[in-house]
Design goal:
188 residues, mainly alpha, elongated
Length: 188
């Protein structure tokens, strides 16, 4: 009887891969993964962090009141240019736009919008002026979309500057462009 016990003990010792695997019991994730309808969820497609979410299906209405994504592309330009700034040009709108602009935009574009913010020197002067003739030709919807989705080296600020505040920033940028145009006309 003793020899059978020793033989069994030797057999168990030789068949074990490691001490950890011998003592480890299956975790809850492994148990749930063994059930067929849950294993599908474990192997399903996952959206990775920092990936753009999938656009909503055509014709859906957002429940949360959020806007569907509309990045700048040839397909979206007509819709983007058709967007009209719903914010009236009031002192409250300009104050709110100035506040958001000073927090998020002035570091790169400068206080006057000339692209002379303190970050621009570190970016090898790649940050454009937003008060040039070319920038004044952009539609309000185009400026709004640039703030929301970014463009070129400019990151998207849609998650930081929300809803109506983006339109207030557009109103303030238009005021900066008007001030720059008036200053340029006065120098001539």
């Amino acid at each position: 009887m003793n020899s059978r016990f020793v033989a069994l003990l030797v057999l168990v010792a030789l068949s074990a891969c490691s001490r950890d695997s011998w003592q480890r019991s299956p975790g809850p994730d492994e148990i749930v993964g063994a059930v067929p309808w849950f294993s599908t969820m474990r192997k399903g497609i996952a959206i990775q962090p920092y990936q753009m979410p999938l656009p909503p299906p055509e014709g859906t209405v957002p429940v949360t009141g959020t806007e569907p994504p509309m990045p700048i592309s040839r397909e979206n330009l007509r819709q983007i240019d058709a967007m009209v700034n719903p914010m009236p040009r009031t002192s409250e709108s300009l104050d709110r736009g100035r506040d958001r602009y000073n927090i998020y935009c002035a570091l790169c574009h400068g206080q006057s919008g000339a692209g002379d913010g303190p970050i621009n020197a570190a970016m090898f002067n790649l940050i454009p002026s937003i008060v040039t003739d070319g920038a004044t030709r952009f539609s309000d919807g185009y400026l709004y979309t640039i703030v929301r989705h970014g463009r070129g080296n400019m990151p998207a600020y849609g998650d930081k500057i929300r809803g109506d505040d983006r339109w207030h920033v557009v109103t303030y940028v238009r005021m900066l462009q008007g001030a720059a145009g008036a200053a340029g006309a006065a120098q001539q």
